[in-house]
Design goal:
This protein is an alpha+beta fold. The protein has a domain of 110 residues. 31% of the residues lie in helices and 25% in strands.
Length: 212
């Protein structure tokens, strides 16, 4: 009986100590507080974000406006570029037929003649018959392609019946489609009688040679 009493007392004591330990552990347990983020208020950060974006948008708009403002200057520069096609020269041709100083004349461009020359100059020919007209065949010499020609720009006759014929040698424009063959461009001037003297020159004053 005595032993059983001791065992019961020991059991009660153990239970009491166990209960006391659980209570003590609960009281001594510390709970970590929730971390506090030090900084700006999230609402304040969200309020400042549009201002930064607005500044970037303004910079972008200013940059685009600057680029658009420079475009007219580039376009104006292109408009001021002169045209490159300035090689063509406007030539005023003399009337193809008429009367000058009492002489009746006619002009035939791209004329043919039995005699050809590599040199620049003119031939004189006529027919073996009474009151036959005279022909002046004016040539710019041998050319290795087509597109060249001889244009009469003036005919004058003075009081002594000295005749002067002025011509211009023309050439094809750059890039023009021409015949790839040797040619001898020639223009024929026909007059009803032989003048006292004949002079044939170019528009720059160069006197042409009579060919035989």
């Amino acid at each position: 009986m005595f032993k059983r009493s001791l065992l019961g007392i020991a059991a009660v004591t153990v239970l009491a100590l166990g209960a006391t330990g659980c209570t003590s552990n609960t009281k001594n347990q510390t709970v970590d507080p929730e971390p506090v983020i030090v900084g700006l208020d999230p609402a304040a950060q969200e309020a400042e974000t549009p201002e930064e974006q607005t500044g970037e948008e303004e910079n972008q708009e200013n940059s685009n406006a600057g680029e658009e403002a420079e475009l007219p200057e580039e376009n104006s520069g292109e408009q001021e570029t002169p045209e490159e096609n300035t090689s063509s020269q406007t030539i005023e041709a003399f009337p193809l037929e008429g009367t000058v100083g009492g002489f009746e004349y006619s002009i035939t461009e791209n004329a043919g003649y039995w005699q050809e020359s590599e040199k620049t100059g003119y031939f004189i020919d006529t027919l073996e018959e009474p009151d036959a007209p005279y022909f002046f065949f004016i040539t710019c010499g041998e050319k290795n392609t087509g597109g060249y020609g001889v244009t009469v720009t003036d005919i004058t006759v003075d009081e002594n019946e000295n005749m002067e014929i002025t011509v211009c040698f023309t050439e094809p424009d750059p890039g023009a489609v021409v015949t790839m063959a040797f040619e001898y461009p020639m223009t024929q001037v026909t007059v009803d009688r032989l003048p006292a003297d004949i002079t044939i020159k170019t528009v720059d004053g160069t006197e042409l040679e009579r060919l035989e």
